TrEMBL record:
Entry keywords, A to Z: Heme, Iron, Metal-binding
Classification via InterPro entries: Cyt_c-like_dom (IPR009056)
Keyword field contains Heme: yes
Entry protein name: C-type cytochrome
Domain Cytochrome c: 38-128
One Pfam family per UniProt: Cytochrom_C
Species name: Flavobacterium taihuense
Length: 129
């Protein structure tokens, strides 16, 4: 019984130690790209996978939708709110004639968190270069 108690105490000590050391361990993790990713990289992943935006948008060429470069340029010039647009709260400013096609994606983007939409925006702006 006493042995068990000692083991238990040791376990508690070890787990406390780990927790209190965490803040000091964090800065080292920045070097590891799998733990901390920039919004552009997160956005690219959403763009190509979950969002399936890549089916219609290429970085620098018009496909079914305008290129990301064109979208980024127009949004920057007009200082427009891309996150609001993707929530269905904005007006189309890039190619209003084709708005109906883009609109079908709001079913996906409206389910996304603000962080995900901001990551998508960051990735689209990343293509401005
Ligand atoms: C079925 C094809 C298709 C898919 C998939 C698609 N888009 Fe589009 N997108 C379009 C078309 C067409 C336009 C041009 C119409 C317009 O400007 O609204 C457009 C326009 C846009 C615009 C500019 C809107 C504006 O103000 O005019 C943004 C931003 C955008 N898409 C982001 C996305 C994102 C993010 C995704 C993935 C979640 C996505 N699109 C998926 C076809 C698509």
């Amino acid at each position: 019984m006493q042995k068990l108690l000692i083991i238990f105490t040791l376990l508690v000590l070890v787990s406390c130690k780990k927790e209190s050391q965490e803040p000091f361990g964090k800065p080292q993790q920045t070097a590891d790209s799998t733990t901390i990713k920039s919004p552009e990289i997160v956005g690219k992943e959403i763009f190509e996978n979950k969002g399936n935006c890549i089916a219609c948008h290429l970085p620098d060429k018009k496909l079914i939708g305008p290129s990301l470069h064109d979208i980024a340029k127009i949004y920057k010039d007009k200082n427009a709110d891309m996150v609001a647009f993707l929530k269905g709260d904005g007006e189309p400013i890039v190619d209003p004639n084709q708005y109906e096609v883009m609109k079908t994606n709001f079913a996906i983007t409206e389910e996304m968190s603000d962080e995900e939409l901001q990551a998508l925006e960051a990735y689209i702006y990343f293509n401005l270069k």
